[in-house]
TrEMBL record:
Its main location: endoplasmic reticulum. The keyword DNA-binding does not apply. Participates in the formation of the lipid-linked precursor oligosaccharide for N-glycosylation. Involved in assembling the dolichol-pyrophosphate-GlcNAc(2)-Man(5) intermediate on the cytoplasmic surface of the ER. It holds the Pfam family Glycos_transf_1. SUPFAM superfamilies: UDP-Glycosyltransferase/glycogen phosphorylase. Its EC number is 2.4.1.142. PANTHER family: BETA1,4 MANNOSYLTRANSFERASE, CHITOBIOSYLDIPHOSPHODOLICHOL BETA-MANNOSYLTRANSFERASE. This is Chitobiosyldiphosphodolichol beta-mannosyltransferase. It is a single-pass membrane protein. Keywords: Endoplasmic reticulum, Glycosyltransferase, Membrane, Transferase, Transmembrane, Transmembrane helix. Residues 243-386 form the Glycosyl transferase family domain. It catalyses: an N,N'-diacetylchitobiosyl-diphospho-di-trans,poly-cis-dolichol + GDP-alpha-D-mannose = a beta-D-Man-(1->4)-beta-D-GlcNAc-(1->4)-alpha-D-GlcNAc-diphospho-di-trans,poly-cis-dolichol + GDP + H(+). It comes from Starmerella bacillaris. InterPro entries: ALG1-like, Glyco_trans_1.
């Protein structure tokens, strides 16, 4: 049934898109941007960073998304930035799933279209995934409502690969078709990794000259040392301030295997540590029940949901960060690791295809299973090696978002100029 719903939506969009050949671009002298994320703004740091960077070059920008948690103070304080909140999705109640999915998609289409129309943008920057309704509505806006405006797609992953984790068959094929049809044509395709850019070129036949890898980078450095580190540990109150602290951030979804963490901690025999797990999500209660069943003598496990500043403070006072992100496509890179590097925190990361673009022997360690994770945790007892990795993470924290964004994306907003090398990516990147 999901497949039929996707088919109807895709067919409508395809019919409308055929009219694009009859449109004449209209030049506008003013500049106005709209940044769209069909998710919680407070937990979409990359899109928040885009918004701040656009404002820094003097361009007014509307940030459109759900407001479900604290937002970066810099966003609220900037007079060029306006937050436009999407209304929360309808609740399912007793509705059959197909009816609920169709009703929710319809409401999101209408809400997003209205907010984009109010924004009156010359540039629309959208996050993908989710693809529905973001890509379709953005195409309609740039084709029909504001012809001549530029559409930029920021590819964080391949949406159909995420759906394929829970659905099979027709639904996945139609979602992929929708994503390819409405994701192929854009003024610029940004992507979080070189491998993802290659997948767009080969899998979706996107013009290579319009594909530009833009790595996630820390927005700023969060560094706490000495007595202030102890003070902040006391303030956070998660456990012994003199013990090793490790941290992982999760959305409690199937693409992060936290049972692997518990399995490793059960066998962990090093100095007693504090393990802080931040985040919330649909599988959190199942995880907490699993924790209660286990005997873990050498680790205190704490779960938390923290405001923006406290989250970054926590990262800065920990000794080691862990990422269990596996990637549905193998091509995306987890922002949580970038956050950890921004706090000068070395990382243990689950190994997969693209992770080497972010984590290397100078700033972290990758693992595939419980044994390799346990081996990685042993670094807590090797102060020299841990200090060396911390140096590497500190170097990563110095490579900030602003400089990279100004070089890669700034020219779209009249800041700087592209060179041929900068405006495309090659398989050898």
């Amino acid at each position: 049934m999901i497949g039929w719903a996707l088919g109807i939506i895709t067919s409508v969009y395809v019919l409308l898109s055929f009219l694009m050949w009859y449109l004449t671009p209209v030049y506008r002298a003013d500049r106005k941007a709209a940044v769209v994320v069909l998710g919680d703004i407070g937990h979409s740091p990359r899109m928040c960073f885009h918004t701040l960077s656009i404002a820094k070059v003097g361009c007014p920008v509307d940030l459109i998304g759900y407001v479900r948690s604290d937002i970066m103070p810099e966003l609220n304080e900037n007079p060029l930035i306006r937050i436009r909140a999407l209304p929360e999705p309808v609740k399912r109640g007793n509705m059959p799933y197909i009816m609920y999915a169709f009703r929710r998609a319809l409401k999101e289409h209408i809400s997003l279209y209205r907010l984009l129309k109010k924004s009156n943008p010359t540039v629309v920057l959208v996050q993908n995934p989710p693809s529905i309704p973001t890509l379709g509505v953005a195409r309609l806006i740039t084709l029909f409502t504001f012809p001549g405006s530029k559409l930029l797609i920021d590819w964080h992953n391949l949406g159909y690969s995420i759906l394929a984790m829970s659905q099979k068959g027709l639904a996945v094929r139609l979602y992929r078709a929708y994503e390819m049809i409405f994701g192929r044509i854009a003024y610029l395709h940004l992507c979080v990794s070189v491998r993802l850019g290659m997948a767009l070129k080969t899998g979706f036949a996107i013009n290579p000259k319009k594909v530009m890898p833009l790595y996630d980078r820390p927005y700023k450095q969060y560094k706490i040392s000495g007595s202030k580190r102890v003070e902040q540990r006391k303030r956070l109150g998660f456990g012994d301030v003199d013990a090793p602290w490790i941290v992982t951030s999760t959305s409690y979804t199937p693409d992060e295997d936290l049972t692997l963490l518990l399995d490793a901690l059960e066998d962990y025999s090093g100095p007693k540590l504090v393990c802080v797990i931040t985040g919330k999500g649909p599988m959190k209660e199942d995880f907490l029940k699993d924790v209660e069943k286990r005997t873990i003598p050498n680790a205190k496990i704490v779960t938390a949901w923290l405001p923006y500043e406290d989250y970054h403070t926590l990262l800065a006072v920990c000794d080691l960060g862990i990422s269990f992100h596996k990637s549905s496509s193998g091509f995306d890179l987890p922002m949580k690791i970038v956050d950890m590097f921004g706090a000068c925190l070395p990382v243990l990361a689950m190994s997969y295809q693209a992770i080497g673009e972010l984590v290397n022997e100078n700033n972290g360690i990758t693992f595939k299973d419980k044994k390799e994770l346990l081996d990685g945790l042993e670094i807590l007892e090797d102060t020299w090696k841990l200090a060396e990795l911390k140096k590497g993470a500190t170097l990563e924290s110095q490579l900030t978002w602003d400089a990279l964004w100004a070089e890669k994306v700034g020219p779209v907003f009249g800041y700087g100029e592209y060179t041929g090398e900068e405006s495309s990516s090659s398989d050898s990147d």
